[in-house]
Specification:
Blueprint lengths: L1 H19 L3 E6 L11 H6 L10 E12 L11 E12 L5 H5 L5 E9 L3 H21 L6 E11 L13 H5 L3 E8 L12 H10 L4
Parallel strand pairs: 1-2, 1-4, 4-5, 5-6
Antiparallel strand pairs: 2-3
Length: 211
């Protein structure tokens, strides 16, 4: 599946570069261990213009899913996750004046793995906009900061009663500053960096080749 992620990023790179023109990427994750996926392939491989520096990455940690007891009582290593209702910050930007000043007036690309309920994306955009507005006021700047979003997968809910709980700014959607590399049915996606048994993950991924 790592190869698929790589190809999804590659296929989206031209539009990200030409339409979003990002100066900075902010990657959303739940846990960090030195590598932030899926954003890490983008600056090093695809969002690189000749004679231009890499686009810097910042990381924020947001958790919405909560772990429940095992689905199989006989297998305590088989945890189940279900969408929660409250977004929890596990990591955020350094809110020092110098750090936040670097966001003012920039094109910022927010990157996440999947747009499911949209609750996490809504929270990230709303809170980052607040922080940038505060920084701009302190700097006395009227420069406009523009946010765009890239996700690997957007979940399409066939059940019309199951609508996305979160909402993104209307101007962002109208201006086309939202890009999903692939739209999939309402299925649970387990990425390689979330797997506890990578061999089992690869086996299951091979049987779900369409994703």
């Amino acid at each position: 599946m790592v190869e698929k992620v790589h190809k999804l990023c590659q296929a989206s790179a031209d539009r990200i570069l030409n339409d979003f023109k990002p100066n900075l990427m902010i990657a959303i994750g739940e846990e960090f261990s030195g590598l932030v996926c899926p954003s890490s392939p983008l600056p090093r491989s695809f969002l690189k213009r000749q004679a231009a520096p890499n686009i810097p990455i910042q990381a924020i940690g947001l958790s919405l899913y909560e772990q429940l007891p095992p689905s199989k009582p006989s297998d305590p290593t088989d945890p189940v996750e279900t969408p929660g209702t409250k977004v929890t910050r596990t990591q955020w930007l350094d809110l020092s004046s110098l750090e936040m000043a670097n966001l003012v007036g920039k094109n910022i690309l927010i990157v996440d793995e999947v747009d499911d309920t949209r609750t996490t994306l809504e929270y990230a955009v709303r809170e980052l906009q607040k922080d940038v507005e505060t920084a701009a006021q302190k700097l006395g700047s009227d420069e406009k900061t523009q946010f765009s979003i890239f996700v690997l997968h957007r979940a399409h809910h066939q059940n019309k009663d199951k609508k996305k709980k979160g909402h993104l700014p209307q101007d962002m959607m109208d201006d086309g500053r939202y890009l999903a590399a692939r739209t999939v049915l309402d299925v649970w996606i387990c990425y390689p960096w979330e797997a506890t048994d990578i061999d089992e993950h690869d086996k299951l991924a091979a049987s779900q080749a369409k994703y």
